[in-house]
Write a structure and sequence with these properties.
The chain has 456 residues and is mainly alpha-helical. Helices cover 77% and strands 3% of the residues. The radius of gyration is 21 Å and the shape is globular.
């Protein structure tokens, strides 16, 4: 295929600083609300749903496994949502799609907060939960790429890594809100928490959604997309078919690169919290607070590693992040298994802002710069969301299975699996083209950096 570098118009060329700031804030807050709703289910999956949405006679571990299967259903639907919203995002525009995804997420979260339990309606309860989780997945599937692109396409190309990471940090920020608010109610007596306390965090999302919708209504359309549409570069065909035809290896490398760090993200948020709480050293509420604290540090770590990628390239930073991940995963589990309250807390810190963020920070720009403007929403959605299924979606189920293997390995099995997954991700990054291309051109005495896009 021909080299399609520099097809996109210069990012931010028709955007004022005020509009750029508004796009960044809108992407960050909107993504925060989306992931608050989506990750709130994950936080509740191991603590609440096995008790309330399955028969009392069922083995608790089987109930937890089924809750994780429903969690996986949301991840499986994410690529479908990514393709759906990516299709219209590449043909109609980014702004309107992001408005719709946020509205969908808010409605579903309120429905979960109000829905009856297994005791009230029997088998219909988990079935409704599956349906709502699938709709959640569709919405998040269209959210991540859209929010990331709205941030990245509103700034100059030399700052795209940092800008994209602002939207990416909506994930850990949503996790902070979800675990903090759920943690507050988790301190209630079990009877109160299981009857009504767990519902309040889901219902509170209504206020967050209203704020997010207001901000998204005010933001301008992506300047890259507007320029491409004005130049007649927005095609009338099917974006997903162009992505499959023109970017097969690019898409494959993007999927595999995202899978490794996303596994660690879901492992900590969904599986590790009930695991450490079950050991008896850390109460349920404190485990959620430990995750919350590590997520706060995560919010700062993601832009830091993205900023490094703006200076040194996406590939070098992500490859170093892979090496960091491999070297620290066994120490992380040693801390989590230490039986010491404060060492367990340190284990969360090693896992989130260091292991996960070191490779995940540049991922927004790494994926966005691989596709032309008219294919970018679909391409980024497809690669990231399929990667999320392979990594985050399967993490709790794989962790349960690996931990229970009849070889005495326990968390060592999980650590070795993660190392294998990170090795595959690192290989995909290594085989990818560097998308941050340094040039010797100077503007106002400063060297500029541009993002190259090349089809396979």
């Amino acid at each position: 295929m021909e080299d399609r570098s520099a097809v996109s118009p210069p990012a931010g060329s028709t955007v004022t600083p005020k509009e750029s700031r508004r796009a960044l804030v809108s992407s960050f807050l909107g993504s925060t609300v989306e992931y608050y709703d989506f990750l709130l289910y994950g936080a509740a999956a191991g603590l609440v749903f096995p008790v309330l949405f399955f028969p009392e006679t069922m083995d608790p571990r089987l109930g937890a496994t089924l809750s994780f299967v429903i969690l996986l259903a949301g991840y499986i639907s994410r690529p479908i949502g990514g393709i759906l919203f990516g299709h219209f995002g590449d043909k109609v525009g980014r702004k309107s799609m992001l408005f719709i995804t946020l509205m969908m997420m808010g409605i579903v979260s309120i429905c979960i907060g109000l829905m009856p339990t297994y005791e009230s309606i029997g088998i219909a309860a988990p079935l409704i939960l599956v349906a709502l989780r699938i709709v959640q997945g569709l919405a998040v599937g269209g959210e991540w790429a859209g929010a990331t692109l709205m941030a990245a396409e509103h700034v100059k190309e030399g700052n795209r890594g940092l800008a994209a990471s602002i939207a990416v940090t909506g994930g850990p920020t949503g996790s902070v809100l979800a675990t903090l608010i759920l943690g507050l109610f988790a301190g209630l007596p079990d009877e109160a928490f299981l009857s009504w306390g767990w519902r309040v965090p889901f219902l509170l999302s209504a206020a967050l959604v209203v704020i997010g919708l207001y901000l998204r209504f005010r933001v301008t359309e992506s300047p890259d997309f507007a320029a491409a549409r004005a130049a007649g570069e927005v095609h009338t065909g099917v974006p997903i078919m162009r992505v499959i035809k023109n970017y097969p290896l690019t898409s494959l490398y993007g999927i595999l690169a995202a899978a490794g760090p996303l596994f660690m993200q879901a492992l900590l948020a969904v599986w590790v919290v009930p695991y450490v709480a079950a050991q008896g050293v850390v109460p349920r509420q404190d485990a959620l607070y430990m995750l919350t604290f590590s997520s706060v540090l995560h919010i700062a770590a993601i832009p830091f590693f993205a900023w490094l990628s703006d200076r040194y390239g996406r590939r070098p930073v992500m490859l170093v992040g892979a090496a960091v991940s491999v070297s620290l995963v066994f120490p992380m589990f040693m801390l989590l298994n230490s039986g010491s309250y404060w060492l367990v807390a340190l284990g969360f810190v090693v896992g989130n802002p260091i292991i996960q963020a070191s490779m995940y920070g540049p991922i927004g720009a790494f994926l966005a710069e691989k596709f032309e403007t008219q294919d970018r929403y679909t391409g980024v959605s497809l690669t990231f969301q399929v990667g999320s299924v392979l990594g985050a979606g399967t993490a709790p189920l794989m962790a349960n299975w690996l931990f229970d293997l009849d070889n005495g390995g326990g968390t060592n099995n999980i650590a070795w699996y993660f190392i294998g997954l990170i090795a595959v991700s690192a290989l995909a990054v290594y085989l990818s083209k560097e998308t941050l291309v340094r040039t010797t051109a100077r503007r106002g005495g400063r060297r500029t950096q541009t993002a190259g896009v090349a089809a396979d």
